[in-house]
Specification:
mainly alpha, 7 helices, about 80% helix
Length: about 180
């Protein structure tokens, strides 16, 4: 799941690396730190919110989990085939643009945190793993952006989307098998 969630951050870090041109260690640190931090925080926020309402949705939570994961995976698949615009003039590794990218790449993790609450799973270890994987993938993505030229980024988004859809389907099958 951590790899599936990190694919958005990976693809965006590739795009950032291409937009920046000459990537410095400072660029790598800023992207990796922010993407990893937000990927860690968002599942925790989603889980915390979900634990407050889990009792009200226990009878249909598996369908909600499947729907959320399939929606997120579908969004990633759709995004992989959209035409991506050219880079911006401003440095995307600084300021509000970096915060916006960090939030945008971690919205999926928020939904996963919400889903884990409905499944009555604790979030702390998964959140740390998700954050570390996103941090590593982001550092790799921006560092090697000029070599992969975004083509691998699209494949990564497709694989991430498919992984989330398959995980969502597995949740439903597991629930039906246990019923």
């Amino acid at each position: 799941m951590a790899v599936g969630l990190a694919m958005d951050a990976f693809a965006v870090s590739i795009a950032v690396g291409l937009a920046v041109g000459r990537v410095t260690p400072r660029h790598v640190f800023r992207i990796a730190w922010h993407f990893g931090l937000f990927q860690f925080m968002m599942p925790v926020i989603g889980w915390w919110t979900g634990t407050r309402i889990a009792g009200y949705v226990a009878s249909w939570d598996h369908w909600l989990a499947c729907g959320l994961l399939c929606f997120i995976g579908g969004k990633m698949l759709f995004g992989a085939f959209e035409k991506h615009g050219q880079g911006r003039q401003a440095d995307p590794t600084r300021g509000w643009l970096l915060v916006t990218l960090s939030v945008a790449t971690s919205i999926d993790a928020l939904a996963v945190g919400l889903t884990t609450a409905f499944l009555n799973v604790t979030i702390w270890l998964p959140a740390v793993i998700i954050g570390v994987v996103a941090c590593a993938f982001s550092a790799i993505g921006i560092t090697f952006a000029n070599k992969v030229l975004g083509r691998f980024g699209r494949t990564a988004e497709v694989m991430g989307g498919l992984m989330l859809i398959l995980i969502g389907i597995r949740v439903c099958f597991q629930h039906m098998a246990s019923s």
